[in-house]
Structure formats: structure tokens, C-alpha cells
Amino acid sequence: MSSISIEFLEEKYFQIKEKSIEGRWITFDDIESLLLKNQKKNELIQIGSSEKGIPIYKIKIGKGKKKILIWTQMHGNESTGTKAIFDLLNFITEFSNSDLVEKILNKVEIQIIPMLNPDGSLAYTRVNSNGIDLNRDAVNLVAKESRILRKVLESFNPDFCFNLHDQRTIFGVEGTHNPATISFLAPSEEETRSLTTGRIQTMDVIGSMNNLLQQIIPNHIGRYTDEFYPSATGDNFQKMGHNTILIEAGHFPNDYKREEVRKFNFYALIQGIFYISQNNKFENHTEYFSIPNNIKNFYDVIYRSKNNKKDIAYQYAEQIESNKFALTLVKKKEGDLSFYLGHKEINKSD
Questions:
Q1: 250-260: per-residue pLDDT in tens?
Q2: List of residues 6+ apart from 144 with CB closer than 8 A
Q3: What is the pLDDT of residues 295-311, one digit of tens each?
Q4: pTM of the predicted structure, to 2 decimals
Q5: How far apart are CA 74 and CA 144, in angstroms?
Q6: Domain 6-296: which topology?
Q7: What does the alpha-carbon distance between residue 133 and residue 80 come to, in Å, rounded to a whole number?
Q8: What is the spatial distance between Cα 89 and Cα 93, in angstroms, rounded to a whole number?
Q9: Residues of the chain with pLDDT under 50
Q10: What is the C-alpha separation between 160 and 205, in angstroms, rounded?
């Protein structure tokens, strides 16, 4: 299996991490200068603008025959993938003369949309400025941003797509006491969730990414539900013949800014891209099913009573206050919460 050295990535990550962006609230203003910086090194093209007129760009790198499309922040409040993308671009630039990067760029062409929903990013909302969830708009294409993505897909005709999302802190890895730090999905193409050739190829690439991440965060990787969603982007792109890998960036202990998770997201991305670049057959899907399901078994804080019957669970609400990102604890559940885990647990007297 083609795999990058985790020791190499760990050694070099701090060097290539894009330190000008951090935290959860990432807007177009935060990345505009980075886009212009990349214009000097890679091809930068404005592919349209949002409903409110904010530019939407794509970046082109590589000259190979295999085609990879990546997009981030189709949900405006899911920014970990955006940070990981700029880490990826820094890595490719910094090590452009390395054997690793040359192998990648000689085999693949990559097109990246680093922020598909800049209106939602500014407002820190899942939806666009007209209240449309872009990830449920792949059929009707009501949103301007959805049509932009579809136009890029049809003109580029990618072999593989990476659809980058964040998942809530409620998810854990089944069979462990660990949060789901990264979750993967090979989307279904129809309701029976059959193993089509495209899904098998997608699962093979996910297996390579999982194998790499298990070396550094073992048992923190989950497999997202493959329930078929008729209007979802990944499901429809997969059905159209564009193998689509969904990456859900989740929680890592004490990492509410998702700065550790962005690193793992970057590792997954560079490994997946390298694996695609170096292989022509993608037939091994069995390892995909060895990844445990991610399940809803976490709260951010649980106050534990002596007999569990008066436990109280809280979840952080994410919001923008006074032009700053803020987390506020909100009570969610009371009673016997022995099935659930807390990212922080406090024993209290009854």
C-alpha cells in the first residue's frame, strides 16, 4: 500500500502549518491574502461569487492525467478543512522539489475550492445567505453556490472528489471511549447502498487514509453512516461517476479550536492524494468496513451524580458574539446518562 511516512509528516508539520488562520470562525477576509499569495505559485481562478457577491475561487495545481476536486466550507460553520487545505498548499510549495511532491504533481491535477459558501462562513451558519443547505441542493441546484460547484464538476470531470466537513462533538467511535476525531464516508448511490465499482474505489482510498491515521491517533477514526440521501452532494456526485470521499473533522481532547484536528485532516488529505497518484487499481474495500461506526454518545460536559440518576449533560452552543467566536454551555439532558460520555466529567453531590 502506498503510504507516506508519518514520521516525516510529524517532523515537517509545524514548518508548513498556515499560522495566519486558526480557530473555528474562518471567513473570506481571513483567506483572501492567502489566495493572492498562492496566485504567485499556482493558478488562481475566480469561478463566481456568492449570493451576496463575495468571490469564490478555485486553485489549480499539478499536471497529471488523474483529476482530483476538493472543496471546503459548503457549510459555512465547518472550517477545519479550509485550514487543512492551506496547510496542504504550503506543504506542496515548501517541498515542491521533493520526490514525494513531484510524484504527486506529475500524476494528478488538483482543483481546490477553498471556500464554497463565503456568506455562510461570514455569518457562521451551516446554510447560505438564502437559507439553503448546499449539501442538500445537489438535485434542485437552487443556490448560486451549488450551481458554481456543479459547473466546476462538469467542466473538470474529476476521478475523485474530497468533500470536507466538520462534525459535532457528540460523535464517538463505537466500541471505544474515544471521540470521533476524523470520520470517513464512501457515499451510497441509491437506497440499497450496494457496493458499486465507484464505491469500492472510494473505500479503497479511505482505507489508505485510515491506515495512516491509525498510526498517530489509534481508535479515534469513525465511519459515518452511509444512509442514502437523494439530494446530498456526495451521494449524487458518486452516482454520477465521480468517486467522492467525505471527510468529517470531529473532536480531539481539549481541542475545541480544532487545531490538532486540522493537522490530522491534512494528513488524511495528503495521504489520500498520494495514494490516488500512485495507484491505478482501487479494488480493496474490506478495510473500510473495519473502521468502527461513529455513534452519538458524547456531550461536552456531564455532571455525574452518585447513582447516575441525576446526571446533567451540557453541550456547547457555537455563536458569534461581539464579532468573536464564542462557546456557551447549554443544558441538554438530565437523568441516567450512564450510556453517555463527557469530554469533561465532573462528579457532584446529589
A1: 999 999 999 99
A2: 48, 49, 50, 51, 128
A3: 999 999 999 998 878 99
A4: 0.97
A5: 12
A6: Aminopeptidase (3.40.630)
A7: 18
A8: 6
A9: none
A10: 10
